[in-house]
Hints:
By secondary structure, the protein is an alpha/beta fold. It has helices at 14-23, 68-76, 86-94, 149-157, 214-225, and strands at residues 2-7, 27-32, 43-46, 80-84, 100-102, 110-118, 133-140, 144-146, 161-166, 185-189, 195-198. The protein has one domain (2-225): Rossmann fold, CATH 3.40.50.880. The protein is 22% helix and 26% strand. Helix 1 (14-23) links the parallel strand 1 and strand 2. The longest helix is centred in the C-terminal third of the chain and has 12 residues, at 214-225. The relative contact order is 0.18.
Amino acid sequence: MKSSVIIFPGSNCDRDMDVALKKFGFENQMVWHNDEEIPKSDLIVLPGGFSYGDYLRCGSIAGKSRIIKSVINFANSGGLVLGICNGFQILTETGLLPGILQQNKYLNFICKNVFVKIKNKENKFFKDIKKEVLELHIAHNEGNYFCSNDELKSIEDNGQIAVTYCDNKGNDNEENNPNGALKNIAGIFNKNKNILGMMPHPERMIDQFLSGEDGSLFFENLIGSL
């Protein structure tokens, strides 16, 4: 299976993602943001980091990059697109995903492990993961997901909430919400479930001796579903 990771000025998780994808069997290629075409791919990843220094608004400049037209065309044709952290922010800026990512509730940068509950497995990203709760890592200043009431109703009605922040038993209440995100939302899909944006980093949790292995479950399922 072939994957492409898009690199923007300020990306800092692109190499981590490259390592993770290759570890689990993807033939990965790195694509510069100023390119116009994406090589033949089964999966496109927008990695975490601080594209363009997060000037103006997180992901707003990256969302106008030359490569984005090809990403949008790929997504609209049914291709799988994954946006992690800054990549999630870019996906909302392009309109591929609804809502926005605001500054964290307490105006602080958060860097820690969190638990997330899988809310929908009827998609290629999560369908064969046996666990309901995963331990992943977050590192962001603007991870506070927000959308309008009409958008929220549509998201809930269409099963677009992918993962929510929770405790290790799967309780997703205010006490387990690190950034103030609406409904504890940590990640969402588009309506067709071929686009996933989420703030937690699965690529940081693929080694039991360095961090943890719950991210491995995500990538093993992903390569197996393609």
